[in-house]
Design a protein that fits this description.
alpha/beta, 7-stranded mixed β-sheet, 8 helices, 7 strands, globular
């Protein structure tokens, strides 16, 4: 996955609350075990009509939402069943961060492991973002802050290990594999002193 250090983008806004993982990527698209191609079916039941044509009134189909890598979502985003396909679909579509006042725990953990940054902000910042779709904001992982166009900056919580992985573009397995020599050295030291 690509590292995230500073993310500057216009925002796409999806104000609905309690968006669950089945709405993010409907169950009928979960037959794949790869990440690529899922973005085409992101929010499929909302983005497309029964004839398969894009719905002009859906937020992500509007011209101003094209090319945005930050999604501002309503309260309690990603609730429902656990499925890694949800962050896979969001990142395959082009999003690198989701901003909300609450992000469901399992979805949040899956996102962090798959290169999608969950950003939790206060109510007033969130309300401003919802009211200003397309606003250009900056997310900085070094300072764990989100900066509005006015220059106002707010901090967001992020565990140090998750921050390290995102900034270096590695998942948990990649982190461990990069330390294979250290792990082998530790294991050899431990077995050297054990009785035969």
């Amino acid at each position: 996955m690509d590292p995230i250090k500073t993310l500057r983008s216009r925002t796409a806004v999806l104000p609905a609350s309690d968006v669950d993982t089945d709405q993010i990527i409907p169950a009928r698209f979960l037959t794949t075990t790869t990440r690529s191609g899922l973005g085409a079916n992101l929010f499929a039941d909302w983005r497309y009509g029964s004839d398969g044509a894009p719905r002009a009134d859906f937020a992500l189909n509007r011209p101003e939402a094209q090319g945005c890598s930050i999604l501002v979502a309503g309260h309690n985003f990603g609730c429902g069943s656990s499925r890694e396909h949800a962050p896979w679909a969001l990142t395959d579509y082009g999003f690198r961060a989701v901003v909300s006042t609450q992000i469901a725990d399992i979805f949040r953990n899956n996102s962090l492991k798959n290169g999608l940054l969950p950003v939790i902000v206060d109510q007033s910042t969130h309300a401003w973002l919802l009211a200003h779709p397309g606003a250009e904001v900056t997310i900085d992982l070094e300072s764990t802050s989100l900066t509005l166009p006015s220059g106002q900056s707010v901090r967001f919580p992020l565990e140090p290990f998750a921050r390290y992985c995102l900034m270096n573009g590695v998942d948990e397995l990649g982190f461990l594999l990069a330390r294979e020599n250290e792990i082998l050295s530790y294991e050899q030291r431990g077995t050297a002193g054990s009785p035969a």
